[in-house]
Amino acid sequence: MKVLVTATSLRPDRPNPALEQLNRFADKVVFNPHGRPLTEDELIPLLEGCEGYIAGLDFITRQVLEKSAALRVISRYGAGIDRLDLEAAKARGVLVCNTPGVNAQAVADLTLALILSVARRLPFLDRNTREGRWPRSTGIELYGKIMGILGLGAVGKAVAKRAAGFSMKIMAYDPYLDEAYAKNEGISPAGFDAVVKAADFLCLHLPLTPQTRHIISGKVMEAMKPGAIIVNTARGGLIDEQAAYELLQSGHLGGLGIDVYEEEPPKQSPLFTLDNVVLTPHTASHTVEATAAMASLSVQNLIDVLSGRDCPYIVE
Per the residue annotation, which of 282, 286, 289, 316 is the catalytic one? Predict the structure, then answer.
């Protein structure tokens, strides 16, 4: 049995209990030779003869799936499937699994780190201090502010708990919101527009779908409080980056913290020029604990499917 592994955190030169388990299961394991998410043309030859595929953030198109005759299961190393043609996978009879929730604490940590970094302009202050300057910069506090959360899934809930520790008031929008949970945790449920307009800090924890692409449009950002800060650790396509740049430059938006981009890696983005923007390279889930959990579950999902056992993490 042949398996392809493209998640960039899973490499043959790094000891990993999950890979050891996979090597015991499969006859041959092929790895990502490029160290980055793969394109359609790169995936097709690598998937030849593979029955299983542990996928990173590759572009898994209909063409890829139609050319992969032996493929039976795609096990996502992570939760998002916006780069995977799920309908084409279903048409081919390929099961798709993911690892929901296992990186929630890591992503929530980075979300709060970005909030604090933007609110206090930490990268700007660090850079200037290292360069021999002694700047003064007046930031804003989190205490008593309104945290707006779009998407109250595992990550959104973890962010809410952290925000509560800063004595923030929490509002949340989720089309499938667990109202009992929100009530128990002191979270105020509200509609999308109400959360956006009230938030001092707006955090995005939504999946990227045709309906949510550019959900944070120029018009939406114009409706936000002057000086509000947006943080996105979910998917890059949720924000209209050009509109965000214009509103950051004008001063209407107070700041932006982003870990994900419309194009990855971003090239010559105008956001690079702004001191009220903090950027990280799609690294929210990259902690020792989260990467180990995603590796373990993605491998177990693949083995369960290929062994004919029930897998609770099949994406419908």
Answer: 282
Residue 15: the pLDDT is 85
Asked whether residue 247 is domain-assigned, the answer is: yes
Sign of CA dihedral 279, 280, 285, 289: negative
- 214 annotated active-site: no
252 labelled catalytic: no
For tokens 């490029």, name the residue.
34
Q: Which candidate in 51, 235, 241, 286 is catalytic?
A: 235
Identify the domain containing residue 187 by its residue range. 104-279
Q: DSSP code of 238?
A: G
- Rounded CA gap, 96 and 73, in Å? 6
pLDDT band at 282 (very low <50, low <70, confident <90, very high): very high
Q: For position 62, which CATH number holds?
A: 3.40.50.720
Say which amino acid occupies 213. R
SS3 278: strand
Both 181 and 191 in a single domain? yes
Q: Considering the candidates 264, 286, 289, 309, report the single residue annotated as catalytic.
A: 264
Residue 202 counted as domain residue: yes
Is 34 an annotated catalytic residue? no
